[in-house]
Give the backbone structure.
Amino acid sequence: MPAYIAIDSDAGSSQWQRVDDLAGRFPDKQKGVDQLERSLRDDLGLDFDKDVKPALGPEIDIVWLDLEGGGNDVVALMQPGDESAFERVVAKGNAKDPSSKLLYERVDGWEVMSDRQDKIDKFKAMVTPNGPVLSDDPSFAQAMGEYSDDALVKAYVNGRAVMDALRSAIPADATKFVDKLGTLDWIAASVRVSSDGIRLDTTVRGQPGSLLRTDSTAAKGTSFEPSLVNDIPGDAVAYLAFHGAQGMFSSVESNPALASPSFGPVRDILRKVGELVAGEDALYVRPAPGHVPEVTLVTEPSSGTDGAATLDRILADTRLRLRIERARVGGVDVRTIPLGGGFGLHYANVGRNLVVSDLAAGIAGFANGGPGLAQSGTYSDALAAAGAPGRVEELFYVDVRGGVELAQRLSSAPIPHAVERNLGPLKSAVEYVSGRPSELQLTLFVRISP
C-alpha cells in the first residue's frame, strides 16, 4: 500500500484536549464551533454530540490501495465506539445525499468504507489471512518510529511506489532524468499539538542524485549555523536563511530542458547566480516609514567574487538596457536601477556580502549594524519554542504580530476587527529543515500565546 494516514478520532484523547485548549485562546472559538455544527446539521442532518461522537472510534485510517486512477483508489478504516450509532450516521448521511453514498463492510473487526464497492473488494483481496501487513514493512516501521504514538495525525508514503509511478507516467526516454533525481525510500509526517502551539514534522528518506547534489554538498553536506542573523536589523518581521554551494548550478549542462545551444545565455546567467549565492544567504522583510516595506536580500558570494560587479554582468547579459545610477549610501557605493514612480532596485557590496534591496535604506540598515535579529527576544523565544537546532539546512521565521501591524499599515482599509482579534493569539511561526544521514526533516511550528 503506497500511502497511509492515521487520524486520532478520540475526542477525549490528550491531543484533542490540547486542541480544545488552544482553540479556546481565540475569541471566536465558540462561533466557529456553532457554525460547523450548524453546517453538519444542514448538510447531512447530523448532530455531532448525539450522532457523530458516539460513532467515532479511537482512530480513523485512510489507505491508498495504489496510485492508479489519479490517486482515487482509497478506503477508510475505523472501529466504531458504537456500531449502531455508526450505522445510523451512515444511513442519515446517505439519505441526505443518495447520489453520493458511503459504502462500508466489516473486515477483520474494522469497518472498511469507500465510495465504491470495488475499492472495498480490492482491499479485501489485498488483506489475505495470515498474509503480510503494512506494519511488517521495515520501511513503514522505520518511518512511523520517527514520531510519537500520541500524534494527532501520522502519515506515510512509500517512496519506491511513488518513483515507480512517476517512471511509468513519463516517456521512456525521460526516465534517465528521473534516475538522476536520486532515490526516495519513504516520506513520513506527523501533526502534534503542545501547550503552546501546533507542530508539523515531515521526514524524507532517500539519496539525492546528480541533479540535486554538487561535489561540494556531497563532501560537506549543506547544513550551516546561521550567522547573518546577527547583522540583520532586529525589527525584521520575516527572515529566511539558506545556503548555497560551490558549483550549485554545475548540473545545468546535463539538464535536458536547458541542453539546447539556444539556452547557452541562460546557463551562463545561472552559473553567475550560483557564484553570488554560494555561501550563507538571507532574505528579510522589515517595516519602513512609507507604505512599501523593506525587502532585502543578503548573499555571500563565492571566494574572490565581487558580488556587485557580477550582478552588473548578469544584468548586462539580459540585454534589457537598464539605466544604473550610482550614489554613496550608508558609507558604501550603491547602484540603483530606477523603476519609475519613485521605486528602484538597489544593490551594493557591504563587506564580503552582496546586499540587494527595494529601498536604499535597506543597504544602509545592513551596513550600519546595530542590534541584530539574533538579539531579539521575540526571535530567540520563537526558535526555542520550535525546537530549532543550531545547524539547519534552511530556516524561515515570521513574527506574526509584527506582520499584522505591517499589513495594517500597507492596507488601504483597516483589517476587520473580527479578523484582527482572532489573529491576536498567533505569536510566531518557524519553519526549518535539518539533515541527518540519508534524511531531511522539515518542521513547521506555529506558536499560540495563552
